[in-house]
Amino acid sequence: MAKRMPSTFVPRDIPQALREAVNRTHSSWHSTLLAGLEAVAESDPVYLPDLVRDDYLPNQGRIFAAFSQPLQAVRHVLVGEGPYPRAESASGFCFMDGAVQELWSEKGLSKRVNRATSLRNFMKMLLVADGRLSVSQTTGDALSGIAQQAQSSSSTMIQTLAELQDNLHRHGFLLLNATLVYRAHVPPAKESRAWEPFLKTVFTSLAEHAGQAKQALPQLVLWGKIAERLSVMPEAASFPQDVSEHPYNLSFIANPQMQRLFAPMTLLNKTM
Length: 272
Known about the structure:
The chain has helices spanning 16-23, 30-43, 47-52, 111-115, 117-129, 140-150, 161-170, 188-213, 225-228, 256-262; strands spanning 76-80, 104-105, 108-109, 173-177, 219-223, 241-244. With 272 residues, the protein is an alpha/beta fold. It starts with 15 loop residues before the first helix and ends in a 10-residue tail after the last helix.
């Protein structure tokens, strides 16, 4: 028996603003993202129309910015909790704060990086993983010394967030959030539930591509409780997974699992 659709659901009835946002992504994702939005609409027919009439972040058509990474290039799916709650910062990429340009200052990390708690702790974890910092001393003089080295004329270290993002993309990261939007009046855990059908569609496409290309499934890197819920989703359960606390927790800096994962990538070094 055919599945009965909710009476208010019309296939492919996706708000124009979201269709336009899909068109800004890499073409390899277009059919997947539209199918994912249809799945959201089928699950809750009023969610997407209500969303586009509301104030949400990321704005300026950046809601699907993470999908600028071609589907066939994805080797890791990094899943955070949700967008930064600031218009300038919510870039559409997991933990990539759009307000950040320079990574370093004279005294350590730049003021913008320090304000973006998750990015700050990720940077410190990378410095520990690279052996540049001791896990017992990631502030003060130790960090100031690293910053001076990073900004020296002979430095091989990256200088900007854009370079860090490029390095992540070069290693095949899809920088995704479990909750694709932030609204001040909606709890992130509730918002994330609405996007689960969308994420199921994304994982299904990644698995199908891996099967067709005879490649290993991408590795899921799940940060925080909301992202961790995805680990048991049937469409994602077969993917290799690394799960950790969210980077806004200080304990993330010393997480040995994250250090083992990221150390070989040397993300803080310029691409030679």
